[in-house]
Amino acid sequence: MVEIDREVIAVSRDHLPSVHEGVLDDPRVKIEIAPAEAFVPTCSGLFDVTIVDSTDPIGSGRALFERGFLSACRGALRRGGLISLQAGSPFYYPRVLSCLVAALREGSACVRPYLGFVPCYPSGLWAYVLAGEELELDEQAVRERFASRGLVTCYYTPELHRAAFALPRFVEDLIAPEEER
Length: 181
Known about the structure:
This protein is of the alpha/beta class. It is 35% helix and 20% strand.
């Protein structure tokens, strides 16, 4: 886990125990206090998955949406790895999603935007993007993995997983390659 602000980890440990459920103190977890855009390029081929839960692409957060950082994220993956990123509100910040998808298409064989509902975010509808060399989204495989792991979730279900990738027309139009618009 890479976090730019040590205080975020401390406050999370103290005030969000029901969210982190002790994972911040799990000996398997290594926490790096550093800007992600500086740390990730040092991690060639180390990860199966890179999850970027960043701030909006303004100020210091802008670096986490730029081609150089996205390329570093791909370089940090092992063969078959994938990247998941938040891409903002497709209603209020459509260019964040369209630019992110376009940049990821430059170096990833498969790029799949998906949507989720976050009531406290602008519009409630939030976009995310998965990118990798191959993204298996077979519904039966998702169900089997979910069941075999004994996961208990409040929001996620295999059916919701499938539905998240069903995009409304306006989002499909936003992510269409330039030559198709």
